[in-house]
Amino acid sequence: MGLYKRNKEENGYSRLQEQIQDWLQRLCYNRWTDFNVHDPGVTLADTLAYALYEIEYLFDSTFEKYLNIQPGKEEDYRKKGLLPKEEITSPAVVTPEDYQQLILNTVEEVQQCQVIPGPYNSYRINVRIDPLADPDLTVKEVEKIYHQHRNLCERLTKLNVETGTDIPGMDLRTEQGYAKSFYSLSHKKKERSFHKEYYSIRNHLPECYGVGERSPDTFSGENRYRNLQLTGYLLIYDYLLAATEQRLQEISSLLELSGTIPEEEERIISGKCPELLTDRDRNGHTGTEREEFLYRQKERYLDLLDSLYGEDSSCFFKGIKREEKFVRRADLIGRFPELNRKRFRGYNILDPEDHTGIVPELFRSIHGHHQEKFLPLADMLARYHLQLLDDHSFFTRYKYKLHIRFIDERTFRELEEVPYQSVRYTDKLYEKLYLRMHILWHNILFESFLVYGSRLENYYILKEWGKGYILLFKIPRQEEWLVMGQFYEKELLIEVANQFCCFIRQLNFKTQNYYLVEHLLLDPECEKPEHPYTISVILPWWSKAVYGREKFEHILRERLPAHLEIHVRWLKVKPFYRFEQLYYAWRRALPTQDEKRIRELSGKLKMVLKEAF
User: Fold this and answer.
1) Residue 164: its pLDDT value, please?
2) CA-to-CA distance for 588 and 350, rounded, in angstroms?
3) Least confident of 64-78, 161-175, 363-377, 530-544
4) Residue 175: what are its φ and ψ, rounded to 5°?
5) What is the C-alpha to C-alpha distance for residues 197 and 192, in angstroms, rounded to an integer?
6) C-alpha angle 319/325/326, rounded to 5°?
7) CA-to-CA distance for 383 and 315, rounded, in angstroms?
8) 3-state DSSP call for residue 123?
9) More confident residue, 156 or 43
10) Which residues lie across from 537 on neighbouring strands?
11) Is residue 495 a contact partner of residue 456, using CB atoms and an 8 Å limit?
12) Distance between CA 343 and CA 335 in Å, rounded?
């Protein structure tokens, strides 16, 4: 084993020394002739070169170090949006061979399996089971596995179970089966770390310069002012280098699958830092330009993750506040692999409570509302003791309870707009709103209110002589003015109005139930169904407040399989109540195989869909 002389070009410190001296000679001409180490200027230049070399050393790190990924913690990759291969490329069950391998790998009693495609997206499954296995239990298990992974507009027409010898043409169980391969990301362990506190270059100078933390405080008179002058000069480099190290520390937060940006921190510079040389108020101020820069960097990283997964998440969040946009966008990017695996998936027919699928899950992710349980509209409103009426019923039977008649031209000029306040709504605030807002006293809402009641510009303040203030509401392009509440204090009115708008906005999202009806299942026993490749997407009329018809249908067409014919139906509140009642009854009837009951409910559902078309 021998010693090798290192190439001089590889020595970063020497390279910086030569470059700095070369620049000084060209800039100073013959006014600076002594470039030996004893010269104070050379000492300062060498100290600066050393500081720059430290920065270069920090920058020369592995990609994992910039991401702040700890050795052995694969979960750190997930936090950065770099999901493991088994999640991104895990196979979806699409072809007959996929179903065969899935059944063989999942049901232990099955020894051979054959999935035979039939006309109109139908399947017939033949399995050979262990002679000691229970045929009835095995049939139920195979049916359960198939329906859990059933794709849109597919149905199982027949399931045959046989025992005995091998059946030609069937797939055999293998040791590999349908097992997924797992992927492990590896990286080298580095001891290098980014500093939390910048160590001033002044502390590297000899003590006789009087600018370091170890320098004596014995300087006085002219020497003291010279030291302060040199300290102020070197502070320029200190803050530049400290800012560089701060940016290094921010990289880990910027390269993260989240909507947050690094917070501004005061640059801590060790050593003596006289107050008279720094403006702390200005130094600690968070500039708008820096915040804009960080948001641009965060957006670029989210764009990079989009490109990795072949998506464009930014198109879903136009027109909303920047902070909320980044949070919801990061959440959606993290769910894209799961959503893409389920883009062919239909709901489980054997489970009436299963309402999963690409349509509901996609739009819940876009809205940022992940409900623990999928509730019908009436049950959701019952949580708040509310009933939703159509506009005609409300203005016919209940308008007199809230209507105000004395809005003339003079009064209209006295109306004030409600100022905006940032509100974070929680359900605990509902009790306070219930006591303040008149419309909630009657336990009713009307469907147009779910659209326009979430917009603060539709509310006005009317000063009532001697009694305080009235909060008014008006639907655009209509004559009616409604009294929402009376208040003695204007500040309280503004606070409650903003909270109420936030509540209506949340309620609008929570009541946007998306249902997907496969027309093939409306004719379960028909050998030649009328619309085997047609699906209807049912959603309430007030969902248009979030997405118009064209944009909604465009999103569906991007996500759903290309061979399906998609019909989008927007229902008013009465037909929507009727549809939900029939839909849930129909879903409960499908697993029972009660042909008469299924045929009856399917016919009624067809009528509702036909009327809504």
Assistant:
1) 64
2) 9
3) 161-175
4) -65, -35
5) 15
6) 150
7) 33
8) strand
9) 156
10) 516, 568
11) no
12) 12
Grouping H, G, I as helix, E, B as strand and the rest as coil, residue 613 is coil
CA distance 37 to 123: 86
With a threshold of 0.90, does the pTM exceed it? Answer: no
Unique residue bearing structure tokens 């291969």 = 85
Q: Residue 328, SS3?
A: helix
- Consecutive H or E run containing 588: helix 573-589
Pairing of strands 565-571, 534-540: parallel
Position 300, amino acid: R
Residue 126 contacts by C-beta under 8 Å, 6 or more apart in sequence?
Answer: 113, 114, 116, 160, 162, 167, 170
Dihedrals φ, ψ of 133, to 5°? -80, 155
Which of 514, 560, 566 lies closest to 538 in space, CA to CA? Answer: 514
Q: Which of 613, 600, 609 is nearest to 518 (CA)?
A: 609
Intra-chain end-to-end CA distance of the chain, in Å: 84
Dist. CA 129–CA 161, nearest whole Å: 7
Strand, coil or helix: what is 412?
Answer: helix
The number of residues making up the chain comes to: 613
What is the token pair recorded at 177? Answer: 């089966």
Q: State the DSSP H helix or E strand holding residue 501, giving kind and residue range, or none if neither.
A: helix 490-510
Query: How far is residue 589's CA from residue 472's CA, in Å, rounded to a whole number?
Result: 47
CA angle 42, 43, 45 (to 5 degrees): 60
Please name the residue that has the structure tokens 């349980």.
Answer: 373
Tell me the Cα Rg of the chain: 35
* Two structure tokens written together for 400: 């007199």
Neighbours of 388 (CB within 10 A): 23
The band of 584, judged by pLDDT with boundaries at 50, 70 and 90, is very high
Instruction: Give the separation between CA 123 and CA 520, rounded to whole angstroms.
Output: 13
Higher pLDDT, 152 or 48: 152
Residues 357-402 have pLDDT tens digits of: 777 888 877 877 666 567 888 888 998 889 999 988 888 887 777 7
C-alpha to C-alpha distances, 31 to 26, 36, 225, nearest whole angstrom: 10, 15, 25
